[in-house]
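In this section we turn from sequence analysis to structure. A common task in structural bioinformatics is to predict how a protein folds when a small molecule is present, because the ligand can shape the pocket around it. The inputs are simple: the amino acid sequence and a SMILES string for the ligand, here S-adenosylmethionine. Study the lines below before reading on.
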Amino acid sequence: MSSTDPADDDSRNESARTKRSQDQGWRPTHAAEASSGVDISIPYSNPPTDRLMAFYAQWAERYDADLIDTYGYMAPSDAVAGLMQLDLPHDAAILDAGCGTGQAGTLLAAAGYNCVDGADLSAEMRAVAARHNVYRDLFEMDMTAPCGPQLAARNGGARYDAVICVGVFGFGPPHVDDLPRIMDAARPGAPVLITVNGKGWDLRGWDDCLMPVLEAAGIRLAARTRIRHMVAEGVHAELLDLRRG
Ligand SMILES: C[S@@+](CC[C@H](N)C(=O)[O-])C[C@H]1O[C@@H](n2cnc3c(N)ncnc32)[C@H](O)[C@@H]1O
């Protein structure tokens, strides 16, 4: 039976308002924009990809300092530690998808992996990554588009032995529906390690949407581990180990 009490209407309206503001995104409490002049809430507001790329173009040079110093960004370190637990040989061909400025690639190189490629849609982020000289190959890839054509000439035309993707998924774009595309970069059965921002996990409903997407695409969730993400914000991430075939 529906209520006619105006107080109930108020409560329903409040609940709808809360839901809408959650859908719009999230804003870190620490303000990196003071030093960088960027609006740090943009990647958490589900922007169109071209707006997201304009944001990263503006942020690229300050990205490492802001994320590490202001936000205590630990996701690359914990995700790379997760990959190292899989005991891949040092000459395994690894793709760092959404490599950004090269934080994960730098950690992989320091751990002795010598066959790591980096891919990212942002030319400005790739330019910063290139300065580290840790990637065998560094190229443009859009994870919201089919990956096959973008990967055809990479890694000698073979699929990768492992893929790592840090700090890209959570709020979107790319969204959960784009996960199957990145699986195409890995050979059958190879680990694809993806971090998902814990705030994004909750606000975008990953509890409900992840498994249907994986099941429809024949992807197995081999492991799910809670890792650190932005420590200064109290935000964790989920590290997913996905396998197909
Ligand atoms: C938060 S940064 C993470 C970068 C790096 N992996 C790290 O952990 O520092 C997100 C990266 O995803 C890239 N990105 C966003 N959308 C993308 C897409 N559709 N395809 C490829 N890269 C994308 C951005 O350019 C940016 O470099």
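The domain at 75-244 is CATH 3.40.50.150 (Rossmann fold). As an exercise, try to locate the residues that line the S-adenosylmethionine site and compare them with your own expectations.
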